[in-house]
Amino acid sequence: GGDGVSDDDATVSAVRVLSHALWRRYQHFLDKTTPFIMYRWISLAGIAFVYALRVYFLQGFYIITYGLGIYVLQLLIAFLSPQVDPEIQQIVDGPTLPTRGSDEFRPFVRRLTEFKFWHSLSKAICIAFLLTFFSAFDVPVFWPVLLFYWLILFVSTMKRQIMHMIKYKYVPFTFGKQRYGKRAPPSVETTSGRP
To answer: Which UniProt keywords are present, listed alphabetically (predicted)?
Structure first.
């Protein structure tokens, strides 16, 4: 009887070693893709397009798509929100003196980073895609109602988020961010001192 326990322990140990090795490979792949922002988002758009085609041609799985849409909206709000909510910070810190426009610049720090936003979105779309292979998740619903409800939810949520951004004067995007790296070599005209 004792041999069965050691066999089970060996099997569990082998599964743990294998799962850890697979997790390390997956994490290594993610780490290598981090700097390639544009390519990551293009590949995600391709995956989303394939998912949309599958749902369109199957004429079903609208509940899965609605759930995916709600999750995307939640991720978008986290991406557009500051890490420390100024409204809560104001309550915690208590009343403060009025601030001026010339106060020290504080960079915008997101609650959800771009990479985590992309990664969570990728996982969600892949899971939704896999769920379309199981008919148990194809609940018959009238999809225009779900679409209409999602659009109302999206508009009201984004309106609230924009009002929050205006009230606390933050912009979650950096336009014209200075990039460091390769510079164009100076032209002959600028080095010679003549126009």
So the answer is: Membrane, Transmembrane, Transmembrane helix
